[in-house]
Amino acid sequence: MQEHTLTNQGLKDYYASMGYAGRVGFGTRPALAVIDLAMAWVDPASPIGTPRLEETVVNTVTILESARAAQIPVFFTVMSYDPALKEPGRNALAKSRHLSMMVRGSHWLELDPRLERREDEPLIHKQRASAFFGTTFLSQLIDAQVDTLIIVGCSTSGCIRATAEGSSDLNFRTIVVSDAVNDRSPSAHEANLFDIDARYADLVSMAETLSYLDRVKSRAVPA
Fold it and tell me: For an engineered disulfide with 124, which of 77, 88, 96, 198 has Cβ 3.0 to 4.6 Å away?
C-alpha cells in the first residue's frame, strides 16, 4: 500500500496514469470563500479549536488583502443552528455532538477579528459541511457571474473538502489554497488535500494565488 501523502510522487503518478488530477486552472471572474474561520475553530480554548489554524488565519488575511484590492467578491461561512437545535436534525447531532455549540448569536460563531469582514461581504450561515447545501451561496455566485471559486479556511477533511466537491459538481473552476487551509489532524489534512487535488479542485500555493489576484487587479475597473 502506497503512503497517501502529497509528497509521494509515485502515488501521484499512479493517480495521473488513471486520468485523475487534471488541471482546471484559474478563470477570469473569481470569488473568494473563507470557510469557518470563527472562534469555535480558531480559538484554542474552544472544545474543537486547534492551534494549527494560526498560520491559516495569517495567510488568509494576506489573501483577503489581495482579493479586496482586486475587487472580487468575498464570502464568509459559519455553521449555525437555532437555539432549540431543531435545524441540524437528530442524526447530525448524534454523529457530531459538537454541533450543539453552533447556536446563532454564540461567541463561538464570531469570525476571527483579524479577517475584518466588511459589510458588503456576505456571511453564509450553513448547516452542513458544504457552503452550497441549503444556502443561497450558488445564487449569489451566479449573480456575480463568477467562474472561479478560491477556497481557504477549515477544516480540510470536512467543510473544505465538501465545499470543493460542491463547487466542482456545479462546474466552477475550483481552487483550494494549500497553505491557507488546515485540519486538526495532520494525517487527515494531507490525505484530504491529496484527494481534493485528484478529484475536485486544483491545489494551488498562496504565492500562485496572490500572483493570479495581482493579474486580476490589473484588469479591474476602478470603483
Answer: 77
Is 154 catalytic? The answer is no
Strand order in the sheet with 202-204: 123-126, 74-79, 30-35, 148-154, 173-182, 202-204
Which DSSP string corresponds to 64-124? HHHHHHTT--EEEEEE-B-TT--SS-HHHHHH-GGGGG-BTT-GGGSBPGGG---TTS-EE
Question: Domain total for the chain?
Answer: 1
Q: Is residue 194 part of a domain?
A: yes
Q: Which of 42, 53, 149, 159 is catalytic?
A: 159
Instruction: List, for residues 46-80, the tens digit of each pLDDT value.
Output: 999 888 899 999 999 999 999 999 999 999 999 99
pLDDT in tens, 146-193: 999 999 999 999 999 999 999 999 999 999 999 999 999 999 999 999
| CATH number (domain holding residue 80) | 3.40.50.850
CA atoms within 13 A on the CB side of 209: 28
Helix (H, G, I), strand (E, B) or coil at 153: strand
Separation between Cα atoms, residue 185 and residue 199, nearest integer Å: 21
In a domain? residue 6: no
- Domain assignment present for 223: no
